[in-house]
Amino acid sequence: MLQKSDIAGAKPEQQADGGGDGGSGRPPAAGLLTRLSFGAVQLALMAVVLALAFAATRYLVNTKPEVPKRPIFPAVYTVETTPAQQGSHQPSIRVYGEIVAARSVDLRSLVSGQVTAVNAKLKSGGVVDKGEVLLEIDRFNFEGALREARANAAETEAKIAEANARIELEKSKLTSLRDQLQLARNDLARIEQLRSRGAATEKQVEDRKLILSQRGQSVEQSEITLTVENARIEQLRANMLRLNWKIEQSMRDLENTRLTAPFRATVRSSTVEIGKLVSANDVVVSMYQGDTLEARFVLTDERFGRLQADKAGVAGRAVEVVWNVGGIDYPYTGVVDRIGAEIASASGGVELFATVDPGDGPLQLRPGAFVEITLPDRTFGSHFRLPETSLYDGNRVYVVVDGALQERTVEVAAYDGDHVLIGSGIEKGAEVLVTRISEIGPGLKVRTEGQAEPSRTSNGSQ
């Protein structure tokens, strides 16, 4: 029997040798072989378990009882329809436009000077009556020019009177000279008769001829003087015409120192104040006639063509104008007055102008207002009027036949608010679908409100 001291005193080499065989005496290779055999047995068992599980699952799937299938029933939509009825319809065209002034003017100063008075209404939005004085310009220089022109005219008139007096005097003198010339001719004839009988000398005859020649020269001189005086008086009269025009011009300039309103108007803007110097042709007031307003709007080529082809034409067609201010509609009446001078290429249509009656309402219509305009379209005879919700893709509608939808390709003639006018493509009395369905298509099953749902069978037929 070993003592504790013997074990403690053993050598390390002995302890190592004793532990090499594990105390059993078996070699190391035998233990490794045992472990490999145990692992192979485990893998085999796992493979068997998996194979059994797979076989059981397959058996359960193959022996599963068949569950009866639920019959598939087609969807049936509850819809609203309307019967297609033909008739004559006159839709309304609704567009937007702008109010413009039919008559407006920029008043310019016709004379230069200092502004001495300004009308209190001469401010933006002010209303002035026809002939009312808007402003006055200093009259001093123009009154002086008028006095000077009148003085020059009076002086010329005096010269004309003086020339007339000279002419009358010369005419009297010429008459006397002609009488003296005639006496000299008679005296010469007498002396020549006496000379032929020997009762007078040759010298006496020559003296009479000299007197006749002198008096003839006096007559010619007087006639020339009279011609000159007549020419001078014509010059004075021509000058008088210029002076009279100067007087009229001065009077007009004097009148133009007061600028008056050409018609009853609303002031847009003014640039004058008392003491301001203005020059001729300066714009001082801009205004428009408030009782002659127009609505300017554009119709598409298609709409304009329809109206133009109508026997009533375009001009003279009544319109309704609505101005929405603060959520309140203010209606006005009007008449299409004319067609614009040019095609509105920017907006792709034809520009029209309608004269608008401003009326006596609580709100005065103003230029620049954005308004809604409604005017009657041409009359469409034998057309179908359907809600716009019945139209798909712009040219298709669906009719209900035996509880199913059928597609119809239609011709759209015009739109009337939330309705559409159909010219052809559907038959009279057809039940047209008006309910919007996203998955619309031919053959879709539908029923109208209040109609009993069709019976269903297990094979899905109705």
Number of helices: 6
- Rg (C-alpha, Å): 61 Å
The structural class is: alpha+beta
What is the spatial order of strands in the main beta sheet?
A: 4-13-16-15-14-17
Q: Strand percentage, roughly?
A: 25-35%
Which bin fits the share of residues in helices? 25-40%
Low-confidence stretches: 1-25, 457-462
Number of DSSP strands? Answer: 24
Query: Which shape, going by the Cα principal axes?
Result: rod-shaped
Main sheet makeup: 6 strands, antiparallel, barrel
Short description:
This protein has six helices and 24 strands. It has 462 residues and is an alpha+beta fold. The chain has four domains: 78-90 and 381-448, conserved putative lor/sdh protein from methanococcus maripaludis s2 fold; 92-102 and 292-377, Elongation Factor Tu (Ef-tu), domain 3; 104-136 and 258-287, OB fold (Dihydrolipoamide Acetyltransferase, E2P); 140-255.
Note down, in words, how this protein is organized.
- The protein is α+β, with helices and mostly antiparallel strands and 462 residues long.
- The chain has four domains: 78-90 and 381-448, conserved putative lor/sdh protein from methanococcus maripaludis s2 fold; 92-102 and 292-377, Elongation Factor Tu (Ef-tu), domain 3; 104-136 and 258-287, OB fold (Dihydrolipoamide Acetyltransferase, E2P) (Beta Barrel); 140-255.
- It contains six helices and 24 strands.
- The protein has helices at 4-8, 12-19, 28-62, 140-196, 202-255, 301-309; strands at residues 76-79, 81-83, 86-89, 92-101, 104-108, 113-118, 127-128, 133-137, 258-260, 265-270, 277-278, 283-288, 293-300, 318-325, 328-344, 349-357, 370-376, 380-387, 396-401, 404-409, 411-416, 419-424, 431-433, 445-448.
- It has a six-stranded antiparallel barrel with strand order 4-13-16-15-14-17. A four-stranded antiparallel β-sheet has the order 3-18-22-21, with no helix packed on it.
- β21 (411-416) and β22 (419-424) form a beta hairpin.
- α4 (140-196) runs antiparallel to α5.
- It is rod-shaped and about 205 Å long.
- It starts with a helix and ends in a 14-residue tail after the last strand.
- The model is unreliable at 1-25 and 457-462 (pLDDT under 50).
